[in-house]
Amino acid sequence: MILDNRSIFSDQQPITATANSTNVYDLGAPGIAHVGSLVQLKRSMGKAGKIPLLIQVNEDFDALTSLDIVFQSDNDEAFGSAKEIFRITVLLADLVKGYKAPIDKLPRNVTERYIRFRYEVTGAAPTQGKITAGFVMAVDDSYVG
Question: What's the domain range around 89?
């Protein structure tokens, strides 16, 4: 698994309460084409539209009932009107070191400029638990410690 510091949302980020990813990713503003007149281009996430994405637990969680991993986008860097792209609910029993979320590709429906993760805790606040999330070259199925 190859991770690039510029493509990481959370780098072994401790989650002890509901929180946003440490980093926000800027996809940049869509361009303008000259096709007889100026035309605003729509965002394209590539031919297949699926960029490999890793969401992995690096340290066992405790105390909470579940953790919602929410992927958001917004045209406002402060995420004042965040749009939910996907949500995964993971139960405490699965929040163990090495767990990888079932979504391993960036969905095609990202149309806004900024993207981030939001981690929403349900139940008691955990005292331990860390997550790494970011774009990767490919997601493998082996255990990563």
Answer: 3-136
Positive or negative, the CA dihedral 96, 64, 80, 86 is: positive
Give the tokens for residue 66.
């579940």
Q: Residue 56 CB: number of other CB atoms within 10 A?
A: 20
Residues 6+ apart with CB under 8 A from 43: 27, 30, 110, 111, 112
Beta carbons within 8 Å of 140's beta carbon, 6+ residues apart: 1
Is residue 106, in this structure, part of any structural domain at all?
Answer: yes
What pTM does this model have?
A: 0.86
CATH number at residue 25: 2.60.120.1110
10-residue mean pLDDT series, the chain (145 residues) = 82 97 88 67 61 93 97 95 96 96 85 94 97 87 52
- 92 in a structural domain: yes
Distance CA 112, CA 28 (A): 9
Asked if residue 7 is part of any domain, the answer here is yes
